[in-house]
Every structure is written in structure tokens, then in C-alpha cells.
Records
---
Amino acid sequence: MLTPNENYRNLKDSYLFFRISKQVAAYRAEHPDLPVYRLGIGDVSRPLCAAAIQALHAAVDDQADAKTFRGYTPECGIPEFRSAVAGYYARRGVTVDPEEVFVSSGASDELGDILDLFDASSPALVTQPAYPAYVDASVMAGRKVNFLTAGPENDFLPMPGKDTEAELIYLCSPNNPTGAVYSHEQLQGWVDYANARGAVILFDAAYEAFVEGDLPHSIYEVKGAETCAIEICSLSKTAGFTGTRLGYTVIPKALERDGMNLNAMWVRNRTTKTNGISYILQKAGIAVFTEEGLKQIRESILAYKQNAKVLMDALDRAGIRYWGGKNAPYIWMACPKGMKSWDFFDLMLEKIQVIGTPGEGFGACGEGFFRLSSFGDPEDTRIAAERMEKLLKDM
Ligand code: PLP
């Protein structure tokens, strides 16, 4: 009899969003007349920008005409898309060769697929609280996962210590769920650590577009990252492609381990396991990285940032401690009066009909914290912030 992948037995139930939707559905069934205000979503609410929409229409028309029709696209990406991404890096002074850019259908897919490059015996290190895919994809691949705890004591930005054992390191900055962003110096610390040990960093930059000021958008802004880091990026939060699906991954040609070149290995992987990403979507991606496209996506990001500000102002007035929000779409607040995160979830739903995400769902050390998202509708966010402020002040 065939043996299934036994590693799936080691997966913990992923109950966070399931439990939230079940509890919200039950509440709505009991209170059909009460509106609910959603600050729990990690999905965007604003439509694709005009430049992307025009490019999508034009690409569909291309497919209707024998003269412009495109069949399979190159597995690693249309050269114009790879160059557009390299140009996006160049704007921040980071040199990336277009052949180091690989198109993808999103960061989630890549976070799992990329593990093909590494032997399953190399343990992963995940900073926790964490986006659940890091742990689950590693467990499915039979990889041991070690954790490094993020908390108020390190501003949710843990650094490796003398005793930290790591071979494959997941870093997410700006972080989901905490909204924390590593500085250049901190990333330099991780890069030096990884180079010294021969480890590889998987740097999840899904939220880089929210970074402001003198903080790094990319790990390649740090010296030596090209010999130890892979960067996984997505147009989901940058440009509203959550339902459209497009991303990119950067694997420097200088990244080698044990005489094997990871860029060349990924070319081999992609040319074997994919037949490219839709021509139509890549055309939309190219449009995002034009001057016009970048200006338009900036407007959406600023609108989400405005939501974050409304929420942060309310928390400030209520005297609640929080992290994130400034360079990330998420605000990570301490639950009031030392409450547990699911108890605070229940309280918010029952008393003010505002839905957030209990921190415990991102790992045990998320207990006592709560994630608020700025991706919602501005008016809903305003009402939710008002209600939260009152609730928190009255406690
Ligand atoms: N990485 C992080 C940290 C995320 O929060 C998300 C989505 O919420 C993803 C990756 C997945 O992005 P994508 O839509 O590109 O699969």
C-alpha cells in the first residue's frame, strides 16, 4: 500500500480563522440586526489600480489576436517582468540582476515550494508569533522547527544569540502579525550570523511597500545578504493582487551552499515544476512597476495607513500599548487588563461588534495580544475605532 506523507500527522489544527468565522456567524445569527465591524482581515479591500486594469484588458485583447497571442511564457518569468522588478529594486539603490528575479503566483506558494531547495534534515528557525505558513510548510516537508520568541522585551524583533541554532531562517519584516520592522543594523546582525554559519534566510517581504523612512524594504539593502538570503515578495498587499495572484522571488546568483548554486537550482526547479505564470497577469505586474502604477498603488497604501492612524489614535487616547501600524498594515495591541486574547475577542464581539484577531492564533507567545488590520473600509474602521476607544476607556 502507498505510504502517504506521514509528516501531515504532525500538523496542528489550523483553527484560528475557522474559529473566528464560526463565532462571528453564530453571533450574527443571534443578532441579525446588528452590523459587525471587521478589523480582522488580512485581505485588501481596495480594487486594483487603473494601470493594472488597463494592462489586464490590453493583455486579454492580445490573446484574442493571432498576431499578438502568447502561449507558454518562460518558466522563470517574462523578461520584461523580471526587468521591471529589478528596476523597482534599483529605485532604492539595490542592484538585482533580472535573472535573479523569478515570477511566482504569490508568496504563499513560494514559501512552501522553495523548501525543495533544502534537505529536510536542516531545521527551520521561526520567530514567533508568526504567519502560520512558515511552520506548516516546514512540518509538511518533514523539517524540524525551532522557535525564537518575539515579545515586548525585544520590541517583537528578536535577534540570534550565541546559542541560537539555525540553518533555514524565516524572517518577516514588516511582520505579520506584529507590524514590527527590522532596522538596517538588526538585519545586518542576522545576515552576519547566517553567513558565519552557512545558514540561509528566507526573507518574507510581503509588506515592504508599507515601510517608510530609513528602514529597509529589502534584505539586500544590507551588506552580505546576497550570499545568504532569498527574498519572497508579493503583489498581494503592495498592489491589491490577493485575488489576482502574482509575486516574485529573488535568489542571488552569489548564493551557494556546498558547491551548489541556489539560483541555478531554482531555474531547474521552475522549468520542471511550472509552465510559467499567466502572460495576462505578468503584464498587469509590469504595469504596477511603471511610474503611473507606483503612484496609484501608493494612494491605496496611504488610504490603509490612514485607517491605521485612526486606530492608533484611538488606542493612544485609551492608553493602550501597541506595536506596528506605522510601517505595516497591522497593529499589535496588548489586551487590556492582562486579558487573554480569545477573551478579548469575545468581549469586543459581544459589546461593540468589532472583530479582530486573537494573538494566540499566531503562536503561544501571542497570548495576551490582539491584531488589528487596517485593510478594511475607512468608515467601518472609524466606527470600530470609536467603539474600541469607549470600551477600553470604560474598562
Ligand atoms: N507572507 C505573509 C507574511 C502574509 O501575511 C501573507 C498573506 O497574508 C503572505 C505571505 C501570502 O501572500 P500571497 O497573497 O502573495 O500568497
---
Amino acid sequence: MNGATSNSPVIEPNETEHDAESRARSIRVLFSEKRIALRIEELADEIAAAMPKELVVISVLKGGFIFTADLIRALHRANFEPEIDFLKLSSYGAGTESTGDMNILFDLSANVADREVLIVDDILDTGRTISLARQLLVDRAAASVKTCCLLDKAERRLVDIQADFIGFPCPNEFVVGYGLDYAHRYRELPFIGVLSET
Ligand code: 5GP
Ligand code: MG
């Protein structure tokens, strides 16, 4: 699925290749904007009942940034005062399969020693990303490490790990939107869906 294939759509006048591709592709909604928003309020209450107010929220880039932004504001409504930090680990490249390679691409700025930490990511798939992130924080002497993923593709797991807080179980399909990309696109969609050719 890229613009260089022989079945690329015809590019109309005043249209970029990108526009033509978007027009030719539709997205089937799996989790609507409203459903995500309602679930995040519940998740914040679950987290508030289980963790201290001064927690450090660690957002896993890039995919986790939109979910984190909404979750921390829901935590604020639950009277929490989280500190926010970011971590980027190597993830999928331009395709849809995991390479198994994991490196720190962008490190935390916070000192997490003796802090209660919540790792926030978009989706738990093979489990490699969350397990590496978790291990990193344990190695840096965090007082406790919990994990929160909006989506859980349980069938795909290769590493034995569960998240402490899960938004929704996710079918075994490649999803986009709400922070999740396909080849660097679709992160801005307010809902989560599956790409389908029209
Ligand atoms: P894991 O390390 O658990 O295999 O993969 C986690 C990361 O892979 C996620 O944070 C996400 O960035 C990416 N990923 C896994 N499944 C999907 C998917 O269905 N769609 C998108 N866009 N990214 C995914
Ligand atoms: Mg990710």
C-alpha cells in the first residue's frame, strides 16, 4: 500500500499523490471518538484508585502521545497532579511488522528513582515495547512501575506481559488513528479504525 504501486489512484488536477491515495482509501471505524473519551474517564478513575497522586506518567512516543494527552487531563479531573515525561523506543518502520530490534531513540529527562511510574502507550501487541520500557524503569530504580495501554491485541503476544490498565481489547487487525500511524500517516484521526481499500 504505497503510492508507487501500479494500482495507485489516478491523480486529479490540483491534487497531490497523497490526496489521491486518501480519496481511494476508506477507514472502517473500530473505536469512535466518543467511545474512546468515555473509556478514558473510566481508566483515569481506575488509575486514581490504584496509584498515588504524584505519579510520573511516561508517554511512549510516538503512538502514545494523543492517548497520554487525553488521559492526563482525565487524571486531572480525578484530582491527580502527574508529572509527564517521554520515551521513544525503536518500533515498526514504514511497514506493519515488528523487527524485534529495540533501542532507546529518545530518553527520559526525569529521574525516576523512588518514583511511582505509569507507562502509557497506544497498543500492546507483541509486548516487546512495554516489556523493554518496564525493564528500563525497574533498572533505574523506580519505586513501582505500572502500565496502561489503550488497546490490547492479546493474540499477538510474544512476550509474557499484561498491562495493568487496558482501554479496549483489540481485534488482530492493523489499526490507525488516535496516535497510531500507517507509514507516518493517520495519527491525527480522532477515532481508531482499520484501513480498507475502496
Ligand atoms: P509491540 O512492541 O507490543 O509489538 O508493539 C507495540 C508498538 O507497535 C505500538 O506501540 C505501536 O506503535 C505499534 N503497533 C502495534 N500494533 C499496531 C497496529 O495495529 N497499528 C499501528 N499503527 N501500530 C501498531
Ligand atoms: Mg508505539
